[in-house]
Amino acid sequence: MPRLKSLPVSLFALCLTACATASLSEPDYTTAEGQLFGEYLAGTYANEITNASARADYYTKAFNRLPSDSNLGRRAITASLQSGDFTQAKSQARSLIKINPNESLARTVLGVDAFRNGNYRESEKYLGVSTNDPTLRMVMELVQGWSYVEQKDYAKAKALFESLDSPDIPFIPQYFPFIGKLQLGKLAALQGDTDAALELFTQVQAVGVAPVETVMARARTLSVAGRSDEALKELKDLSKLNGGFETGPIAWAIKELEAGRGLGPLLTPKQNAARALIEPSLGFFRRLNADDGAEIYIRLANVIDPESDKGALWLGNLMDQVGRNEEAKPLYSGIKPSSVYYVQAELSLATLYLREDDDDKALALLEKSYAREPLNATRETLGRVRIFRENYEEALPIYDALVNSLSEEELKLDVEPLYFRGIAYERLKEFDKAVADFRRVLELDPDNADALNYLGYTWVDRGENLTEAFDMIRKAVALEPESGAITDSLGWAHYKLGEYEEAKIHLEKAVVLTPASATIVDHLGDVYWKLGRFREAGYQWQRALDFDPTDEEEAMIKRKLDGGLDTVNLAP
């Protein structure tokens, strides 16, 4: 098969059990203790449904009723930070630190607040205390390091950045030491030691930690040192290697340098402190699925530098990734057209709308964006929306123009426009042109599993070039053995050759890998019919109707349900 790019059950069951077994031993919610218990449970429920505001409200009420509970206070602070209410988080931190002076989250919140307000001695009082919490220790040391820079105490800042270590986590075990090296490079640049700064940036670049931030720090350092030509060459070489940056900070920097405007001045200590927290949020914690850690880092970064569009975009991406769409939307839409992150924010918002099946809103946003700034990235997204909406007539000219505008070198770096144009040709029955595009994709990228699968499946479905088609599909399966769509193609190839038992093995596996695909479930029904398992075939066809089949698929499935497989021309 070609690929195109509620309450938790346990909680619901618990509610049913509680209702069925209610007795006189049930908590009395009219007492203070009962209200506290209810509010705590409500906060836990709010946590389950990812409602940050409700969670913060409930935990705050619970902590207010039991201010001696340190664990409850920590939960209340976390919930307030995640709801974006830093004022409330500060108030809770002050209450918590009275009962537990060494509480690390309370110290972090109060230290960050002191730093952003320029109260550096107070900041050190809170952040300069050791903690066994490795996640918060990194925040405290990074922020305190830049607090020392603000005070011109460069020796202490350098010692702190050099001492950064990493939690014992099997993912880039030296991640935070290299984040420390990035800070050391920025500190050296601020002190005017350009060569030392560049050497440190080179070390960070070699391991791939914070790649864009490091590249931009290096370019900015060169530019401020009067070496803008070197900065421009490095950025252009990087852009060329990546197929050309149309938007974002690197594209902006290239334009600024080409116009002779330079990239100065260097970022302030507060801006650098915020960016030191932004990078680990998605670059480290999110990649480990440590969403709470990721959010705390980026929320604190945005407290330090509330004008940071990078912080807003990254927080929007995080909210988007964890399913908090309504929080992501205003973050994306709040980024102004003058920002270097504006196009990325619009594309992210459009993608979010698409995932919500709000295609009309996504298209309107993309059309407006493309009319204002006709970039390839926006044009490609417009084409892809039309592909997924099965509007191939409108998708084809978009991809045709896009492919024709790209050089061979650019296409080699990104074969997606060719691949999607091939899909449009195939769906419009222009098979020779489709085959030419898929073959070209495979010339440029021989291990492109999607193209191998799509072309192989198309040939199998048409009964053409079966030997080459099988080879392509088998290679695609070897490249992506967990893909239900590709495994389906292999099963369908055996089906088309009349090898029904072999087809059944692969199609049953494909359904396990991708259980909600109308096409795959429909194919399994077909092979069951061929094996004489008519009742099971009907069951699978009926299930396929629940998984949003195309109009053509739906019509054929209904015919099969009425009269069996023989009523449609599917037999090999």
**Secondary structural class:** mainly alpha
| CATH-derived topology of the domain at 447-572 | Serine Threonine Protein Phosphatase 5, Tetratricopeptide repeat
Tell me the helix content.
Answer: over 70%
User: What is the overall pLDDT average?
Assistant: 86
**Number of DSSP strands?**
0
Share of residues in strands: under 5%
Walkthrough of the structure:
This protein has 572 residues and is mostly helical. Among the domains are: 6-17 and 24-101, Tetratricopeptide repeat domain (Serine Threonine Protein Phosphatase 5, Tetratricopeptide repeat), CATH 1.25.40; 447-572, Serine Threonine Protein Phosphatase 5, Tetratricopeptide repeat. It has helices at 9-20, 32-48, 52-65, 70-82, 86-99, 104-116, 120-127, 134-150, 154-162, 175-190, 194-207, 211-224, 228-241, 249-258, 269-285, 291-304, 309-321, 325-333, 342-355, 359-372, 376-388, 392-405, 408-413, 416-427, 431-444, 449-462, 466-479, 484-496, 500-513, 518-530, 534-544, 551-563. The chain starts with 8 loop residues before the first helix and ends in a 9-residue tail after the last helix. 45% of the residues are buried. Mean pLDDT is 86; it is low at 6-30.
